[in-house]
Design brief:
- The structure is a homodimer.
- By secondary structure, chain A is α/β, with parallel strands linked by helices.
- The first copy, chain A, is 38% helix and 22% strand.
- Chain A contains twelve helices and twelve strands.
- In chain A, the strands form two sheets. In chain A, strands 8-7-6-11-9-12-10 form a seven-stranded parallel β-sheet. A five-stranded mixed β-sheet of chain A has the order 1-4-3-5-2, with helices on both faces.
- In chain A, helix 8 links the parallel strand 6 and strand 7.
- The longest helix of chain A has 14 residues.
- The N and C termini of chain A lie far apart (50 Å).
- At the A-B interface, helix 8 and helix 12 of A face helix 8 and helix 12 of B.
Chain lengths: 265, 265
């Protein structure tokens, strides 16, 4: 295994650029992951691994995972702890880092029509929220996630970290304009708009049609769903609150909605 | 209104210490808040405000809130934008900061026995998760939150920010040892332990006794509830998952559990 000790090594600089910049991720079609758990998920989900970086400590403590990394990655390098400190986004790095090719578990309009339950995120900006929603969707058996209206980049390290590996499993579709997308599928899907409105249908009363997939649409943290997107949906649903808080955290609201949705499935 | 321009001013140094150190918050019995929304909540909830700091921009843009701050606080100071940059924990500060006396909406064992629904957090370490749970508890009408087993400090700026004002409304009780606490209330409360275990009772099937308050116990992010705490509970409950993710984010799991709990109320 070749050893990298220079912080100026081009492979190291590439990793740092990919961790920091969406533009580089888009241009190169690559993203980065770190930590034993998510790297194991990546090997297991057959994600294409371009480069793996391991510390000597990791090699000694986790020889099996290290061997899997070497087998999965096109190139594997041994890195010093100084380089590790440069790569990591964590307080206590675990000593394993990979550069991955972007995922190909993509949805398209045809595959959507064969699904049962989808979530569309419209303009979600907080990486932690976006990652948590992907993790929850995976836990609750949602069949895919549609990213609309310029959500933040799912390949940013913070999103990847928050998904706890779910990103690598969840089928994804990107679309520019949620309202247009919903109109194009009118009659072929059943769409529900999550809104903060006491007059909307309480989520637990929603009954899904059995003949079409359902798309649950969730808006951004600050401003919720746009009026245009809500109007393009078949139903407006809400979470009835008993208490005092004006609203829920976006990831929490999405979780409660998905929870009720999969119960009614 | 007196003007502060020196970063070495003792009032400014006190704010910075309170924002950064639990030890200082504990010693002085004070904590800090920033931003228009949470400060308005504090005035509204009659929190004791020791000091308010306002920028000129805030005074000009929000004269009503500024007047409320002056009325509520023992001392109000005009600060420069340079000082604002020193005080803030946000990317885009709003120009209003307060030093508050710690809250007195406290629970004790007797008040607990008059409540219906309580949540006990055991060793929750992530400030964002803790804050989000407090916000969700408030939204779902939970009557109080018990903090056990060295949860992170609810008065840290990150928790305060994540609660979106709910911290100021929620009755709180601190206790050192969750298992001991539950044993001391044995028979007088009904306690449910949230666990990741396929054989535990699905949360939606839990029926609460009407003659006693219910305490839902939620463990830490990493390791969940301790065996001792779970054993001290009357029932073990879980969230049945259909999908692939091994577990949910702690704040998401707490939200789904509280949601089901308040539905059964």
């Amino acid at each position: 295994m070749e050893r990298i000790t220079s912080r100026e090594n081009p492979k190291i600089k590439e990793y740092v650029r990919l961790a920091g910049n969406k533009k580089d991720r888009d241009q190169l079609g690559l993203f980065v992951i770190e930590g034993k758990k998510v790297c194991l998920e990546a090997f297991c989900e057959q994600v294409n691994i371009k480069t793996a970086f391991l510390t000597r400590r990791f090699l000694e403590e986790h020889p099996e995972t290290a061997a899997q990394a070497e087998a999965a990655a096109e190139e594997t390098y041994l890195i010093s702890e100084e380089i590790e400190a440069k790569l990591t986004g964590c307080k206590t790095p675990q000593g394993i880092f990979c550069v991955c090719k972007k995922l190909d578990k993509l949805l398209d309009v045809d595959t959507i029509l064969n699904k049962r339950l989808l979530v569309m995120l419209c303009g979600v900006q907080d990486p932690g929220n976006l990652g948590t929603v992907l993790r929850t969707a995976d836990a609750f058996g949602v069949d895919g996630v549609i990213l609309a209206d310029n959500c933040c980049d799912v390949y940013s390290p913070k999103v990847v970290r928050s998904t706890m590996g779910s990103l690598l499993r969840t089928p994804l579709l990107w679309t520019k304009d949620s309202a247009e997308f919903l109109r194009s599928l009118h009659g072929r899907v059943y769409s529900a708009a999550a809104v903060v409105d006491r007059d909307a249908l309480p989520m637990e009363e929603l009954r899904l049609p059995v003949d079409r997939p359902c798309i649950l649409c969730i808006g951004s943290e600050g401003s919720g769903l746009s009026a245009g997107t809500a109007a393009a949906c078949d139903q407006r649903v809400t979470i009835r609150m008993r208490g005092n808080a004006e609203s829920l955290n976006a990831a929490v609201a999405a979780a409660v909605l998905m929870w009720e949705l999969q119960k009614n499935r």
